Amino acid sequence: MAISLVTRSQWGARAPKGSYSPLTSTKGVKVHYTGGRVPPEIVDNHNLCVAQVRSIQNFHMDGNGWVDIGYSMIACPHKRVFVGRGPDRLPAANGSGLNSDHYAVLGLVGNAGFVKPNNDLLHGILDAIDYLRQEGGAGTEIKGHRDGFSTDCPGAALYAWVQRGAPRPGGGDPGNPPGGQIPAWPGRLFTFPPVTVGDDVKRWQQQMKKIGFELEADGAYGQRSRDVCKTFQRRVDLPDDGIVGRLTWEESFRYTL
């Protein structure tokens, strides 16, 4: 199993304040979201993921009084999987009396900002689940935090994916375009001004034309491209900054009329 793990030492985890309760097997895993705002820029900057995980640990330990972060594993939108409490240890995030039946896996999306999981985050959640099955005796169930607990967690978008059976992207997920794969983000931001020029811009413009926008696919990201971008971002509930970053790129190719 290939998994891109971020160890506790790599993300700068604090030492636990006490001993963990053991957990040798479970029915499966419950999927969570943060329940707060996650900055959209997180999809372009992995350092923000690290900062987010540290902040959550601080809140759980200092605010909730828990011995450590409450999640077993945390998946980020870069297909990286952070070790929280890890396998064989009782989580704390599922709710009182509910932690012994399921591990807790957090996806770094929230209820504002970055709210729709990208494919790499979904891959990360599934990689975390596979890891917990292999290393921690997790069962086959994949449920949302709200299953059996009064909460809106893991949010509408992530819970809809769980209800579809948590399919791995590229394996028949109806959210993907025909062919199953979203083109890889080119790794740079399209901004105006100044004009951003390139074949990657042209590819994005062609996609926007395909989904119904009037736009010349000339490879130059100017005022008209920026206006189209902002309109599209509002349509899919993204911040309308007029910048094509990783999240806007992926939503553009995921979008269907």
Q: How large a portion of the residues is in β-strands, by DSSP E?
A: 5-15%
The helix count comes to: 7
Strands, count: 10
Q: Describe the main β-sheet briefly.
A: 6 strands, mixed
- The structural class is alpha/beta
CATH class of the largest domain: Alpha Beta
The H-level CATH homologous superfamily of the largest domain, spelled out, is Peptidoglycan recognition protein-like
Helix content: 25-40%
Q: What are the low-pLDDT stretches, counting only 5+ consecutive residues below 50?
A: 172-180
What is the end-to-end distance? 36 Å
Domain Peptidoglycan recognition protein family: 3-149
InterPro entries: Amidase/PGRP_sf, Amidase_domain, Peptidoglycan-bd-like, PGBD-like_sf, PGBDSf, PGRP, PGRP_domain_met/bac
Pfam families: PG_binding_1
Protein name: N-acetylmuramoyl-L-alanine amidase
What does this 3D model show about the protein?
Residues 3-149 form the Peptidoglycan recognition protein family domain. Belongs to the N-acetylmuramoyl-L-alanine amidase 2 family. This is N-acetylmuramoyl-L-alanine amidase. One of its GO terms (molecular function) is N-acetylmuramoyl-L-alanine amidase activity. The structure is a single chain. This protein is α/β, with parallel strands linked by helices. It has two domains: 5-163, Lysozyme-like (3-Layer(aba) Sandwich); 196-254, Muramoyl-pentapeptide Carboxypeptidase, domain 1 (Orthogonal Bundle). Helices cover 32% and strands 12% of the residues. The chain is built from seven helices and ten strands. The protein has helices at 8-11, 46-63, 119-136, 156-163, 199-210, 223-235, 246-254, and strands at residues 5-6, 28-32, 37-38, 73-75, 81-83, 102-107, 112-113, 141-144, 196-197, 220-221. The chain has a six-stranded mixed sheet with strand order 1-5-4-6-2-8. Strands 3-7 form a two-stranded parallel sheet. The longest helix is centred in the first third of the chain and has 18 residues, at 46-63. It is elongated and about 60 Å long.
